[in-house]
Amino acid sequence: MARGNAFLNKLSIGSVSPQIPVVPGAIDGPAPPGGIAKHDRFEGDVSMTRQDFNIGDDVHFQISLFDEFLSAIEEFGDDNALHGPKSIVNMKVMQEFKFQRFQESQAADKTVSFHSSRIASSYNEAAFILTFFANGTDGLLSKQALTSIFQNQTFAPNWFRRSSPGTFDFIVDTAAEVLAPHPIQPGANVNGVYVLDPTDTSCNAAYSDFVLNNLPHTLNNVTQPTFKKNIQTLLKIVATPFGCPELLPAGPVGQ
Q1: Residue 110: helix, strand or coil by DSSP?
Q2: Does the keyword Oxidoreductase apply (predicted)?
């Protein structure tokens, strides 16, 4: 919804695509939607393997950042008879590495943005790695398998998927465990100072941030029947897991 064309129900999994035209009425600006690779709606700052948008390459894999990940495994990882000492990615590895990346971005990027929806996607991503990249045969994520997936974008030899499906709640619960030792308050750097977002307990903060700040506010003015129905359907789908009311989009256009 934030980076696609809800009239067609299509989304680019990269950047701008000729298959995803400008949204009807150009209500999200005159350019085609930017896809999920566009900064600060789904992708964003404090990535595990990409630089922040304002200080470096936010698109391509950064081996220097992945080396930090490997260093965290060396320090906090578990030993394993098959893969060797300090070779298993455990919860402690992810907890410490994720917090380290936040500290680095907060110090280096004077405009770092880490609002509620980005915190949610960032830590859900970490949970996904821990729970779905682990080998289905033993439930362990080895350093070798992690390197194959991240660096080569291939599964390691003798890697098998989970024997049971993972649910949305499973991801959210794991993400909360990753975040728990080092809680991070939603906010952004303003002139190099991290300013906390206002607190709102009326609804899930990540959902509210996504709809109110990341979805173009001009969607409220949609009158085309198919387009309007698609938007209403998608808004309901997004709201349901969070137990929130369906909020009307209120974010900036064309960003």
Answers
A1: coil
A2: yes
Q: Give residue limits of the domains in the chain.
A: 48-214
Q: Tell me the CA end-to-end span of the chain in Å, nearest whole number.
A: 13
Checking if the pLDDT of 205 tops 80, the result is yes
Q: Which residues contact 203 (CB under 8 A, 6 or more apart)?
A: 242, 244, 245, 247
CATH number 1.10.489.10 given to 48-214: yes
Q: Transcribe 30-83 into DSSP letters.
A: SSPP--TTSBTTTB-SS-SSS--TTTS-SSS--HHHHHHHHHHHHHHPEEETTT
Looking at residue 2, its pLDDT comes to: 84
- Bridge partners, 96 (sequence order): none
One-letter identity of residue 60: H
The structure's pTM equals: 0.87
Tokens matching residue 119: 């915190």
